[in-house]
Amino acid sequence: MTKKPQTSKDAVKQVVKKIRRKAGQTYSVEEKVRFILARLRGEESISVLCRREGNAESLYYSWSKEFLEAGKRRFSGDTARQAEVLPIPWTGSGAF
Questions:
Q1: Has residue 22 been placed in a domain?
Q2: DSSP string of 12-38?
Q3: Cα–Cα distances in angstroms (integers) from residue 26 to residues 39, 56, 61, 82, in the given order
Q4: Is the pLDDT of residue 84 over 90?
Q5: What tens digit of pLDDT does each residue of 7-61 get?
Q6: Which of 2, 10, 38, 78 has the fewest CB atoms in 10 Å of its CB?
Q7: CA angle at residue 70 from 48 to 42, to 5 degrees?
Q8: 61 lies in which domain range?
């Protein structure tokens, strides 16, 4: 079975399909944090990092803003902790 030589129209269709697939991509929290921390470490410039990852620079800036605002809220105590308070078990020995 032989493949047909690819026409420019077919090549364009493949590129468009790849772009649409990439546009609908969702990222996990871990991927977002890894992406942001790579820049905060100063390993690469934003443009180089985004080019390597295949993301737009605007996406980096929006994630970075979210990340830093969440940290700011956390340090200021705006977020409620969902820790469960458990009583300390009493042994009954009376000794401390």
A1: no
A2: HHHHHHHHHHHHT----HHHHHHHHHH
A3: 20, 14, 16, 27
A4: no
A5: 788 888 888 777 766 666 788 889 899 989 999 998 889 999 998 888 889 999 9
A6: 2
A7: 25
A8: 28-75
